[in-house]
Amino acid sequence: MQLPAQEPSSNGLVYNATKEMIQEGQLAVLNTISRQQNLFFIKTIFGMVVFVLVFLAALGFLVYYFFRPIESVEKNLSNELDTYKKDISQRFTEQSKNLQENYHSHFQKLYDQGQEGYKELLSFLLKLQKDYEQKILVKQKEELLLQQRSEKQQEKIQELNQSLSKAEWKILELEAQNKELLSKESLWKKEKESYQKEVEYLKKQLQERLTKEELESLKRDLEDGG
Fold first, then answer.
1. What is the largest CA-CA distance in the chain?
2. More confident position, 20 or 145
3. Who contacts 207 (Cβ-Cβ below 8 Å, separation ≥6)?
């Protein structure tokens, strides 16, 4: 369907106006959408920030809620540990004091016992010394008595020697000479027997080594020499 020639101009104006209006509307819509998008973006960011803050707050609350008992437990444990340390230190001090007292008392007891033992040892040594001195005195007296007896016997021997006569001395001298002669005779007999044994041994050696003729000749020579 074709329009009249005059209508295009008016319609064109209307079209252009409409187009402009549409474009303006589109721009307005786009601007509105853009603002809404920006607002949504801002709201989203704000919401995320709020969510993060709420989450952090909740997390902090949870941490505080869960870790506060742990902190109190740690404090209790620390207090109990301090109390235990003090108790142990006090017990150690008391035990050390008791051990020191026991050691001193035991050492004092041993020292007293040692003093008593030392006194007993001294008394025993003194008694032993007295016994030895007494025994030494007894031995000295015995030695003195023996010496006196020996001197008396020597005096008696001298008296007996002086009382012997010259004949008795001569008899004693002859007996001594007789003993000497008997000893010499016994010695001479031993030498004679030894000499005879040597002669017999030599004879046997000669008989074994020499013939009868040589032996007869040796005998004749000995007889001629004799």
1. 225
2. 145
3. 215
